[in-house]
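Lab notebook: predicted structure, single chain.

Context: the supervisor wants predicted structures on file for every construct in the current expression panel, including those that have not yet been purified. This is the next one on the list. No modifications to the sequence; it matches the entry in the shared construct table.
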Amino acid sequence: MQAFAVGKEYARQRLLDFVGSRQAQSGVLWGPKEPGCIICTSGGRHGKKAGYSDESLPDGSWWYFGQGMNGDQQLTNSANSKLASRQLSVLLFTTREPTAKEVAAQGGYGKLFGYRGLFNVANHEPYIPATGIRAGNHLVRFRLVPAEEGEEARDDENTLPHGLGPNGLQEWLRVATSQPVPVGLALVQYYQRCAQIRRYAKLRAHGICEGCGTQAPFTAQDGSPFLEVHHLVRLADDGPDTPENVAALCPNCHRRVHHGSDRLEFNAGIVRSILAKEDGLR
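Prediction complete. Output recorded below exactly as produced.
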């Protein structure tokens, strides 16, 4: 999916072309060319004057404020509803005003957008600024956390929970993720829940790629079959991920599903396969 390099700056038209959008002014972009993602642009002058601004946090996550420049922000707003659903991956860009030299070189004024990476929406919460022209307004801010696709297994993600046989995976997952997810879900809870889902996908695969059906290409340092966890669709049931939305893939299939010319069709095929597999486990 990604066609941007972290740290590199792009013109707005490049962002619009990527998703197939004609949104001239919006800070949140989406379109038919990449239906699985949404582009969020951060920065600019409005937030600082209004008494709030997006914020990069020490743990690598971000606070990103919702759309709506006047009065209270509503989750029924098109952009805000997409973010709140947690159904889409977020490509985050920061905005920079061009220098006079850059304006002269490009023959006109145009903001530059620096790519910060791929993120997921962990949760959202209300926020009321105490100062600025938006003081007292009820705003919404979203917690964006770095996407972890393609990471190697951590801790004991590849090992079966103690005392539980392969046929008990569904029950283990139900217990592990049974707690309802509140709006203000703590970041550590988010990461713990995502780790359980990743672990489940790898256990379900039993060392066989869920994309092409072949054995994992090699053994990881911990002795487990090396597979990468891919999120099929950014979908939330009562949490950030569900078993039906993750697949354990070999590196080749993982790259194909993101960068292949047939990525949409290939991903759709994996979705059907995982749904059938989950039905068989119930």
